[in-house]
């Protein structure tokens, strides 16, 4: 097979995944992931049932392959309020309760949604051409266009350095390490949870952030108190002067009273 990086620059086009992609989509998943996906998952992807997807094809490919998938991303919309939903199978979005914990989730806004990236992959010979970045970009754009959507999130196995590098580059925030999240061939592996906030979504404050806010609030409070005290200090001597003057006045002769009073009123 000709390496598209060595050959001329391939012309990559992006489009939704459709029923005719079923076979190649299954092959790519089997080739790229250590997890087996159920056929129901592929059916849902190609028929856009509860799943949104984008495929990448090399339009400059010869031999009728110009419409064959060389990359893909699949994602699902989840309701942030479905905090009791448990994963039914490997391709289900994990318990959104974790995610609600990671968002400043307002339960009164019960229509808040999240987009969970289920799978992302690029054929080996097409890697490092920015294809996965473009696919993620599509997901970000799509999520931002949903007014109720607050974040895009995903899991990545802890040893997948190319993917971790990619998500960091795309401004995803690594918010948690989940111990033993994946079970592959009887062995547990940790995963990282990455989140990209959209439409004003944000994470709740971490203890450190909370402490920073409290300290800066107290600092502001103290400096405004100090400013008020300073103001009062300026007034105090004048007030004291008045008092003193008043005291003095009582001891002063009637003759001086008028002049002292004038001075007193001016204070
Ligand atoms: C992860 C994957 C989708 C990236 O696809 P891609 O099209 O090559 O991604 P991009 O070209 O957009 O970006 C790749 C970035 O990773 C970097 N990268 C590649 N290999 C790397 C490695 N071993 N360690 C660190 N970074 C690496 C590239 O340099 C590039 O970053 P740069 O733009 O700063 O140079 C692809 O490697 C893949 O399909 N892997 C197998 C399936 C998989 O792991 N999917 C993700 C599951 S969470």
From TrEMBL:
It comes from Pistacia atlantica. This is Uncharacterized protein. It comes from the Eukaryota.
């Amino acid at each position: 097979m000709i390496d598209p990086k060595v050959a001329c620059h391939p012309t990559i086009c992006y489009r939704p995944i459709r029923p005719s992609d079923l076979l190649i989509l299954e092959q790519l998943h089997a080739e790229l992931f250590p997890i087996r996906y159920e056929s129901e998952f592929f059916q849902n992807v190609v028929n856009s049932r509860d799943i949104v997807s984008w495929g990448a094809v090399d339009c400059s490919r010869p031999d009728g392959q110009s419409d064959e998938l060389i990359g893909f991303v699949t994602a699902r919309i989840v309701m942030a309020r479905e905090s009791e939903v448990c994963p039914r199978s490997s391709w289900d979005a994990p318990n959104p309760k974790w995610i609600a914990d990671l968002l400043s989730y307002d339960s009164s806004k019960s229509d808040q949604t999240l987009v969970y990236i289920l799978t992302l992959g690029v054929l080996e010979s097409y890697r490092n051409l920015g294809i996965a970045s473009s696919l993620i970009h599509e997901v970000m754009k799509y999520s931002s266009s949903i007014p109720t959507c607050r974040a895009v999130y995903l899991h990545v196995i802890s040893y997948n350095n190319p993917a971790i590098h990619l998500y960091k580059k795309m401004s995803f925030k690594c918010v948690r390490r989940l111990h033993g999240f994946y079970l592959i061939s009887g062995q547990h592996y940790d995963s990282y949870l990455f989140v990209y906030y959209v439409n004003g979504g944000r994470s709740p404050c971490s203890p450190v952030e909370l402490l920073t806010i409290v300290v800066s609030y107290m600092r502001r409070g103290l400096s405004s108190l100090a400013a008020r005290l300073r103001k009062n200090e300026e007034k105090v001597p004048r007030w004291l002067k008045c008092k003193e003057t008043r005291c003095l006045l009582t001891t002063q002769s009637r003759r001086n009273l008028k002049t002292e009073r004038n001075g007193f009123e001016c204070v």
